[in-house]
Amino acid sequence: MNLKALVKGTVVFAATMLVATAVSAQTFRVAIGDAAGGTQHELGKAFAANLEELTNGAAKADLFPNSQLGDETDTVNDAAMGLLDFSILAINNVTPFSPSVGILTLPYVIQSPEDAKKLTLGEVGQELTENTIRDAGVRIIGWSYSGFRVLTNSKRPVQTLDDLKGMVIRVPRNEIMIATYNAWGINPTPLAWTETFTALQQKVVDGQDNPYITVSAMKFDEVQKYITNIRYIFSLEPLIVSEAIFQQQSPEMQEAILEAGRRATEHSYAFLAESEDRIKQELMDAGMEIYEPANEEKEWIEAATTKVWPQFYDSVGGKERLDAILASLGR
């Protein structure tokens, strides 16, 4: 081989390696707590598709559902340290790292999908994003709307607080949710998400609460019989990016990430509206029974708001902050 050919071959090889390295560097990992088929996965798919489109294929996102990359709280830690690019997780698992986010998980603050969208995409959502950057080293760039967390159990229909007593209910390791069940007269069992299906299957716990879409995606109908529409928390699942990773990107890539998150958020809201009733019917067809809580306003809501809200005024920004949010929602 002559020198010219050798030099040309070396240049081509180097260019190929640079392109390969660049492509590899822009393949992001997205941890997803729930199984494929749920709203978290739907948000992830929409984000990945939009990111690839906006960057003309220069950036891709690989999805890892069903906690393949670790428990949801672990993924916050990993993202904060720059060991993980993105994570989609229940908002209650962000709260321990950035307590002010808990204002969106106070029982009965959000009473409709419209409330949820207004808060997450408005001034409140922007403030919470800034707080999570400061407190946890992660940035919220999108939201999954999963609907109200309904109570499921395998023992009996639950319509009153008396029906609930004596049951073992799984909750996340979240102080607000634990306090809510305490206000209803029971001591719930905090349990990791990855252990929940097995615990329900083996009847170590009797029940849990999650949105209809999550109940379906996790196949809880196989181990649960009864549903109660308690509607105490509207389930929000933010898409977070490691702030360290985000700051390493070019301005153009940062904007593509943010825009992909915005588009995925809109997709998630539409997905909930078009799929929740169908999934609810599918769960009934599979044998689950659905009940409405009796005297919800006087019994369930009053106990939760009067006993739980005051415990968390300080951590969510003060009573005045909560009052302002309620006023913005017309209450």
Structural class: alpha/beta
**Rg calc:** 22 Å
CATH class of the largest domain: Alpha Beta
- Measured by DSSP, the beta-strand proportion falls in 15-25%
Number of helices: 14
Q: Which topology of the largest domain does CATH recognise? A: D-Maltodextrin-Binding Protein, domain 2
Would you summarize the structure shown here?
The chain has 331 residues and is of the alpha/beta class.
If you had to describe this structure to a student in words, what would you say it looks like?
- By secondary structure, the chain is an alpha/beta fold.
- It folds into 2 domains: 3-98 and 111-145 and 236-274, D-Maltodextrin-Binding Protein, domain 2; 150-233 and 284-328, Bacterial extracellular solute-binding protein, family 7 (D-Maltodextrin-Binding Protein, domain 2, 3-Layer(aba) Sandwich), CATH 3.40.190.
- Helix content is 49%, strand content 16%.
- The chain is built from 14 helices and 11 strands.
- The chain has helices spanning 3-25, 39-54, 72-80, 113-121, 123-136, 161-164, 175-183, 196-201, 212-217, 243-247, 251-285, 296-308, 313-316, 319-328, and strands at residues 27-32, 60-64, 86-88, 138-148, 150-153, 169-171, 189-190, 207-210, 226-228, 234-242, 289-291.
- The chain has a 6-stranded mixed beta sheet. The chain has a 5-stranded mixed beta sheet with strand order 2-1-3-10-4, sandwiched between helices.
- The protein is globular, with a radius of gyration of 22 Å.
- The termini are far apart.
